[in-house]
Each structure stands twice: as structure tokens, then as C-alpha cells.
Amino acid sequence: MFRNLISRLFGQDEPTTRLSGQDAEVALAALLVRVARADDRYSKEEEQRIDRILARRRGLDMTEAAERRAAAEMIEAEAPDTVRFTRLIKDRIALEDRSEILAALWEVTYADGTRSPAEESLVRLVAGLMGVSDLDSGLIRQRVTREMGLDEA
């Protein structure tokens, strides 16, 4: 099943073909994993935050969310460079979902309670590739840190 998703994501399918449901969520989860791994420290807190994000977005229980994350970890390892990977996701996920995706990326960035320049830099890159302005990205980051109860990171 997930091998088919890799083919659909990175194969020769028409790039304007929208991903739906589970495919879109696993692709997003792979991007969340990529951000979490950006500083070479993929912590339990980051895994748990990804699971909560996936559960919240699709009404999954935590076991189902963890299974999606595990699939996403495999997909992320096979995904092309971040620029190509993000463009593939951008082309296949609706515009109105991009701010929510960016908020999820910021959540994962701060899940372990530490600032990581590598993770922050990657989220900023992804924001630009997804067509979200620096100003909007900063406002989303501020909202996320406030909601997470963090001092302004």
C-alpha cells in the first residue's frame, strides 16, 4: 500500500493530481518527520507530537496515528530532496490547507522544547516553497508557540 503511495507521490503521475485522504496525510506526515529529523535528533517528543497532529487532523486514535507516522518515516527516507518533495506536496494539497500544514510543522519544530536552527530554517524554506509569506509564517509560528505555552521562541 505505501509502496503505491511512493509511486503516486514521486512517480510520473500528473503533478496536478490531488492527493486525497490518507495519501495526503501520509505525505504531510513524511514532511513532519523530515522537519523533526533536520537537526539529527529525532526525539520521542517529536514522534508523539506528530502522532497527535495526525490524530487531530483526521480523528484517528493514537495507534492509527502512530502507524501513519511509521509509514511516513519510511517514505521520508525515500523522498527526494526537500525542495522537490515540498513542491510535490504543494502541487497536490489544496491551497487552503497550507497554513494548517505550516502550523503543524512549527509544532513539530518546538515539540522537544528546544530551538533548533536547522529545523527552523527548514520550516522557513518549506513555507516559501508552499507559497506562504515570511510574515504569515512568522505569525503562524507565534500563534503555535503561544498555543503550546512556550515563551516566544
H/E order of the elements?
A: HHHHHHHH
Number of strands: 0
Relative strand content? under 5%
How many helices?
8
End-to-end separation in angstroms reads 39 Å
Major sheet summary line: none
Structural class by secondary-structure content: mainly alpha
Supply Rg.
14 Å
CATH class call: Mainly Alpha
Low-confidence stretches: none
Average pLDDT score? 85
The number of domains is 1
Helix content: over 70%
Q: What is the CATH third-level topology name?
A: TerB-like
The CATH architecture assignment turns out to be Orthogonal Bundle
Q: Which geometry do the CA atoms define? A: globular
In short:
By secondary structure, the chain is mainly α.
General description of the model:
It is built from eight helices and no strands. The chain starts with a helix and ends in a 6-residue tail after the last helix. It has helices at 2-10, 21-37, 44-58, 62-78, 82-92, 98-109, 117-129, 134-147. With 153 residues, the chain is mainly alpha-helical. The chain has a single domain, classed as TerB-like (Orthogonal Bundle), CATH 1.10.3680. It is globular and about 40 Å long. Helix 2 (21-37) runs antiparallel to helix 3 (44-58) and helix 2 packs parallel to helix 6.
Layout of SSEs?
Elements (H helix, E strand, L loop, with lengths): L1 H9 L10 H17 L6 H15 L3 H17 L3 H11 L5 H12 L7 H13 L4 H14 L6
InterPro entries: DjlA_N, TerB-like
Protein name: Co-chaperone DjlA N-terminal domain-containing protein
Pfam families: TerB
Label this structure with key terms:
153 residues; mainly alpha; TerB-like; 8 helices; 71% helix; globular; Co-chaperone DjlA N-terminal domain-containing protein; DjlA_N
